[in-house]
Structure formats: C-alpha cells, structure tokens
Specification:
Elements: E1 2-7, H1 13-22, E2 24-29, E3 34-36, E4 41-43, H2 46-53, E5 58-59, H3 66-75, E6 79-83, H4 91-95, E7 101-105, H5 117-123, E8 128-135, E9 145-152, H6 159-182, H7 215-224, E10 231-235, E11 238-248, E12 257-261, E13 265-269, E14 274-282, E15 288-289, H8 290-297
Parallel strand pairs: 1-2, 1-6, 2-5, 6-7
Antiparallel strand pairs: 3-4, 7-8, 8-9, 10-11, 11-14, 12-13, 13-14, 14-15
Length: about 300
C-alpha cells in the first residue's frame, strides 16, 4: 500500500523503518529543521535523517495548507500514518487520503490523551501502559481504536527505557493494523467518553523535586523525567539533575541531608521517607554517582536543600 509517513523524533524511527520494509512509503513529512546546540545551527529531525538514509522523499512544510493537500493528492497515497509528528493535522489533510490517516499513541486510550502520556503514566504510578492505533480525527486522540496492546512498566523503569519499548510496540501495531486494512478485516472500537483522561505537556515547574512531598512521589518524578528533561533540586544556587534514586525510610526534616558519605552516598529526607540518590548531574558538570557528588561538592549531613 502507498502511504505517507508523518513523524519527527527518534520515537518515530522504529515505525518508519518497519513500514519501509512492508509498505511503499511515497513521502515522509517531518518538522522543519530547528536550531540546536551551542552554535544554534539548524539540525534535521531524527526522522529526516533516517528518511534520507532510506532514500525516501522528505517534505518539511511550515504549514499544512492547501498547497500541502495538492502535494499529497499528487502522491496518490492511500493511507497516512502518524507517529509523533508534532503538528496538528487539519481535517482537509485527513480527507485527502482515500483510507484516511491512522495514528499511533503510546497509551491505552482513552486513558492519557495528549502530549505526555508516557511521563504521566509513570508520574501516576501506573503498573501497566500500552499503545493504541487509532483513526486520526479533528479531536485530539479521540478516533476509533483499530489496535491496542498492553505493556508492563518495569519497577525501576524510567521514561527513556519505556519510550523505547513503546516505540517498538508502535511499529508492531502499525504493521498489523495496515495488514488488516489491506485484507479488509479491520475492526473499529469507539473510545468510551466516560473513561477519558488527559496527559497534558510537562511544565517547567513540575521538574523541581519537592522535599515536602513523600519520597515515593519524588521518585516517580525522577523516573518520569529521566533522561530528559531531568528532575532537579537546587544546591548552592545551581540545578542538580537527578537521573536515578531509590526510596528509603530515613527520617529528617524535608530537604535535610541525612546521609553524605563519600563511600556510601547521598540521601535526602522527604515529608515521608527519604531518597537515596544514585546518579545525578550538577549544572555545568558531567553525570556522576551520589558518592562522587559528596566527594566533589563537600556536602554535610544536616544541611537543608531547597
């Protein structure tokens, strides 16, 4: 089947690669190049880089307008496929495909509609998540479900690991869904409006660890924001991002350093319990262990962090 692929980040790559082996991708739509790095040079998206390697035509319109519709019609594609494209796709674009557009969303819809389903699932302490392939509609993540599969969240798993596993799950789901569409046996299930929950984008203020909250909640925050953008605390007026930690039971005032041992590590008290910091990154430095941080930054037990 001739398809047009819409995607931008690395999360989209397993789907792009798998579909390139099983379908005829006639064009790849991705976001325009963005400035990045110290020199703020324009950088292509991971999807653009991969599409070029696969010798696939790449399109990067700033707007999905009438010109885009004409371009799509000339491609004679039957189906559109969206995986984390990052732009709202208008109804007219959807209607320009004879078989519509299907979208992979990394949650068990109708739970966690929105921009941050993976982070929100971890933040809420979910034990199970999954992926859904749906028909794209004008309402965000609200289309009929074509395929869905559960995925267990591992006990210490962070967003990076879970995102990778969900990206491969999406590739599997899209291949199976398109095969069902080709064979005329696809089944649709409307989403239950009474079970809808939302996963809004992560705001900057959510990234800061709050010692006045239970250690468990801060631990979930660390996992949800690792490796990017990184949960953090402030030490000597600088951000210290935390990538790995364990929940413990030491007691102290919220934010109090209850362990600062160059051989054993760093532990910080919360409202309930404590956090044993395993891996962190002080602003302007490299990633290090809790023990290395104690040795290099001369922390003292009893200090209060904010």
């Amino acid at each position: 089947m001739k398809i047009v692929f819409f995607g931008t980040p690395a999360f989209s790559l397993p789907s792009l690669e798998k579909l390139n082996l099983t379908q005829q991708i006639v064009a790849v739509f991705t976001q325009p190049d963005r400035p990045a790095g110290r020199g703020l040079k324009l950088q292509p998206s991971p999807v653009k880089e991969k599409a070029i390697k696969l010798s696939l035509p790449v399109l990067q319109p700033d707007k999905l307008d009438e010109t885009t519709i004409e371009t799509i019609k000339k491609l004679n594609a039957e189906l559109g496929v969206v995986v984390a494209y990052g732009k709202f796709i208008p109804t007219k674009i959807i209607e320009s495909f004879p078989k519509g557009i299907i979208n992979y969303h990394p949650s068990l819809l109708p739970k966690y509609r929105g921009a941050a389903p993976i982070q929100r699932a971890i933040l809420n302490g979910e034990k199970v998540t999954g992926g859904s392939v749906i028909y794209l509609t004008s309402e965000m993540d609200a289309g009929d479900i074509l395929w869905q599969e559960k995925l267990e969240i591992m006990p210490d798993e962070d967003c990076g690991s879970l995102s990778e596993r969900l990206s491969f799950l999406g590739a599997k789901g899209l291949v199976e869904t398109i095969k069902a569409i080709e064979e005329g046996r696809v089944e649709t299930t409307p989403q239950d409006p009474n079970k809808v929950t939302f996963a809004p984008k992560i705001e900057k203020e959510e990234l800061k660890l709050n010692w006045r909250e239970p250690a468990e909640k801060n631990w979930l925050k660390i996992r949800a924001f690792s490796p990017q953008p990184g949960a953090y605390f402030i030490f000597k007026n600088k951000k210290v991002k935390v990538y790995q930690a364990n929940v413990n039971t030491k007691k102290g005032r919220p934010g109090q350093i209850v362990l600062a041992n160059p051989k054993i590590g760093l532990e910080i008290a919360c409202k309930e319990g404590s956090l044993k910091i395993k891996m962190l990154k002080p602003e302007g430095s490299s990633i290090m262990s809790g023990e290395e941080f104690v040795r290099g930054y001369h922390l003292k037990e009893g200090e209060i962090l904010r």
